[in-house]
Amino acid sequence: MDSSDTITEEVCREDDVGDGQLLEVMVAGYPVLLVRNRREFRALGSKCPHYGAPLSKGVLRGERLRCPWHGACFNIRTGDIEEYPALDCIPCFKVTVEDGKVFITAKKKDLESSLRVKDTSRRCLLNKNTMLLLGGGVAALVCAETLRQEGFTGRIIMATKEKHVPYDKSKLSKEMNLKAEDIYMRKPEFLEARGIEFWTEKEAVSVDLQKQKVHFMDGSSQKYHQLLIATGSHSGFLKIPGADLQNICTLQTPEESSKILELATGKNLVVVGASFIGMEVAAFLSDKAGSISVVEREEFPFQHALGPQVGGVAMKVTEAVLANGEKLPADVVVLGIGSTPNSAFLKGTSIARDDKGAILVNLHMQTNIPKVFAVGDVVTFPVALLDGDRSSIHHQQVAEAHGRCAALNMLGRGEELHTVPYFWTTLLGKSIRYAGPACLLSSPSPCPHHPGSEVVWVQTTVPGLLSRLSPPGCGKGYTDTVVKGSLEQQKFLIFYIRDGHVTAAASLNCDPMVSLIAEVLYLGKQISKEEAEACDIGNIPLLAQS
Description:
Layout: E1 6-13, E2 22-27, E3 30-37, E4 40-45, E5 59-61, E6 64-66, E7 73-75, E8 81-83, E9 92-98, E10 101-107, H1 108-112, E11 130-134, H2 138-149, E12 155-159, H3 171-174, H4 188-193, E13 196-199, E14 204-208, E15 213-216, E16 221-223, E17 226-229, E18 233-235, E19 248-249, H5 254-264, E20 268-272, H6 276-284, E21 291-296, H7 303-317, E22 320-322, E23 332-335, E24 339-341, E25 359-360, E26 372-374, E27 379-382, E28 390-391, H8 396-410, E29 422-427, E30 430-435, E31 455-459, E32 480-486, E33 491-498, E34 501-508, H9 513-522, H10 529-533, H11 540-545
Parallel strand pairs: 11-12, 11-17, 12-13, 17-26, 19-23, 20-21, 20-23, 21-31, 22-31, 25-27
Antiparallel strand pairs: 1-10, 2-3, 3-4, 4-9, 5-6, 6-7, 7-8, 9-10, 14-15, 15-16, 18-24, 27-28, 29-30, 30-34, 32-33, 33-34
Helix pairs in contact: 2-8
């Protein structure tokens, strides 16, 4: 390679960077993250490959760097991804120290990119083993990529009833004006280059466990050596008169997102269910729809998942008010009332499911049937932070962690799931971040009335109207909270307490606190209620070092 493609620049003096410090420096006009850890310097890509968060604002624990926004983790020695939701690694650069000066050497093409894709094995036609992955979401995608990254050379088939390659479903409600191609997580040619077959509009209708064969809607079938079920879930439906009227919509695909945007623009929109999807739709359409009403049986948005305190803040962020007893004009209705596992095609098989249809798996993501694994929204699994109690958690990061764990165990690695659930919601540009098992309802407090807003909040007690609302709670929940900062000023950190210790945390405008707490929980350490009460969010850098 031409030496002009390699750049070496002095970026700082050795004593400019303290131990454990993260510093963004410039090399040839490109930002690079300089890390000093145990007196050794490391240089890496400065942005998280997920959504571009500045990693200099992240959390460093040992050799593990966690993104401040959504919790993705990277090894500072290798740049390798260690925790999701990011799919890719970050580049690493050479660091030298001479006469107290710190130099970084890098190739220009690596500086220009904020990510590095892991090397993978190639498909070998001599390997006749077939891994059949049912589902086209992120859980199946990560499983397929991990199989290749870990050296599997046999056949990998992803079969989905959808029309698209895997896409970022979290953007369907947050950025409804995007085209499907804008939110693809991998392009078709990416999958093709890695020998991953991707079958669209291919819905599984039955599984023959004895013959190890899956039958599809189009009449075809496919044999497998190992099977992954990652078929996700589908939106809940109202079971009341009029539920089949025109312009009653659910939101699961890019086409449905575009349809809702088109129908609601300038019209009267009613959102049924103050779930994450429901509230995000209301927030995105707040300046586009003629009017918006949110109908919810509970007193606050997100009440099951985040509790009444955070729910109260969400109401203020979206300028929501309580208004009982109104008849609402509705040109368009969007349903955000929970979901049901896509597992009906397993009826008649011996694969164990719970009473809601969720597939039972262990910490290896194995079902009760040999060579059959299941991941993502379709499963219920043991949650370590809930003392092994089972739960279904419908969030992208968890699904990706499932996919990786399943892939390793399909290869016989004996890997147990070890992750801290991490999710976020965005309302009118404000992001609430959360780490830990989602919370179960505690006693709500009353909410003040705020007249004159653009979005109407309607609390309903109509029997059956929201009887299927099923937020992603995780079982035992919490018994107490500690709030630091100000809920009213929308800058806060809230600790969820159970048995005297922190089990989860949520924040608004307090980065990277949730990432810090996620890392503490990941390491198996406990934060007592007293430590939470002593937390000073006014000095986040000092807290991150403690």
